[in-house]
Known about the structure:
Elements: E1 31-39, E2 48-56, E3 68-72, H1 84-95, H2 100-107, H3 113-131, H4 145-156, H5 163-171
Antiparallel strand pairs: 1-2, 2-3
Bound molecules: zinc ion.
Amino acid sequence: MPFMPVDAQAAHPMPSMKSKPCPHCKKTGYLNGHGYLRGYGDGTDNHAVRGRRIYCSNRGRRGGCGRTHSYFLASVIPKSSVSATAIWCFLSLILAGFSRRVAHKKSLAVNTSRRIWARCVKAQGTLRHNLCTLAQPPPTVFVVPFLQVIRHLVDAFPLASNPIAAYQSAFQSAFL
Length: 176
Ligand SMILES: [Zn+2]
């Protein structure tokens, strides 16, 4: 599923919709905003806005297919209630030298650290492959291989306040 630009808010109009083809029927010119994609957010909110729903209009004489698709906010991790902001906070603390236990306490909800870390480690091959298209791998060798990936992520998006959101928007691919 695609991601919105890194600085786009859910309430912003999506100006390029009319020039984009529908992913279902491939026709151009019939896409309209169709409300929000909602689901779990940080904490207990299960109606948090996670993105935009887009409708390929077949109303009236419009020639679309009538189906919908969605764009995630760049700060949303698909299939996870943990936000990219919280995960970035966790990873940046680890990169700064904090232990996983301490970084977890400062950034993530209870019982999420092990699961998030496992997903990070599992994703590292894809992450490294994509990041290599933007920046050289860091020369430093870290004891924990995933730290190298976090360093690489920072090098690839040096100006981003949230490099995970920047990654998702740039590669149109989930970080985890
Ligand atoms: Zn369509």
